[in-house]
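Dock inosinic acid; give full complex structure.
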Amino acid sequence: MANVAVIGSQWGDEGKGKIVDVLSSEADVVVRFQGGHNAGHTLVIDGTTYKLHLLPSGIVRPGKLSVIGNGVVVDPHALLNEIKTVKSQGLEVTHDSLLLAENASLILSVHSIMDQAMEEARGAKKLGTTGRGIGLAYEDKVARRGIRVCDLAYPDVLKEKIEKMLDHHNILLKGWGAQALSAETLYEELMSVSDEILKYSGVAWKRLDEEHKAGKKILFEGAQGHFLDIDHGTYPYVTSSNTVAGSAAAGAGVGPKMIDYVLGITKAYTTRVGTGPFPTEQENADGEMLGQRGHEFGTTTGRKRRCGWFDAVLVRQAIKTGGIDGIALTKLDVLDGFDELKICVGYEIDGETFDHLPASCAAQAKAKPIYETMPGWSETTYGARSYAQLPAAAVKYVKHIEELIEAPVALLSTSPERDDTILMQDLFID
Ligand code: IMP
């Protein structure tokens, strides 16, 4: 297996957890490089379901190193709770198996308080954030008033930094008529977990360099999806990090050439949680059916996901702007039983035809999909483990997607179980 970056090519929830798990059986190291506990990766292994938010998916396999890179925003309480949960499910998490970058930024309670307060203030125009304080923590990082993991080792400096950070946030809270936060409370919150957190902390970039030099295989695990990217997504209805594979190098502390292959995880239809443009959304019986069959409820917030047809224009754009070499097509079985299937091949906006999604939020809201219709199939694809087991119409659907998105389908997933996977390209083997 080469060093692979796995990223979502739609709006997240494409089924990355399972694919990362399939690939991590070949990898030695699994690295998260952006996002935080807004992510939700579900892994089903031997009948046990693991719901991971912040921990890299490698944690479910003994003998792998899991790294939380500097590009991730880390809520220390959420991290320790997650470690506790997976330990109670029988997994081992030690400072040998988990490495937290010392230069990762922390999410403090002030960030989730502000995230939720800002969402409330937006009223009908809310972004539909996960309320986890992700955006606020990234804002503080970029504004150079953030607190990092390494600061926990220096309590005096930490105190000063918290005071400075609160100078900013308390002005805003005061302006909203809300109660100011006390630096002492935030300090105590962090000090109560600092020893535990520091046990996992280390120089991640150096360790990754050593692992790479030793010929170890590294898997970079993206969170969210391409169209939630702060630059390439449906701004402002996006998350606050770069979700593209290009961000893996900066967010892990490695050079871009370390990534040999970018795999875009792609659902055979489209879903989105939260607010924002979604041209192929089906607010009708088809959308309901996709949602029910696909169990489309968020892993992190439990929110019902919006559902719609496959959008080849979006995925092609993700492939071009994200450097995706091939896709893993997931949840094909959810399409079983539809008489016909629609695929979006272009948009009509104010009478003009587009072969891409323009950047303007106003234009995106007006984008009317241009569809191609394909025959569906009545047979089940659930659990198929070879191409030969797929009905002819399903094979045609997959082949047509490949043509439209201008990239090959490298993997096909037909159920949440890791073995129900069809490997179409042997790209990951030396
Ligand atoms: P935030 O990341 O909590 O700031 O939320 C910003 C937007 O990204 C919202 O629309 C969220 O629903 C969406 N989002 C964040 N994380 C995920 C994810 O892991 N899957 C899908 N959507 C997500």
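Observed: The longest helix spans residues 155-175.
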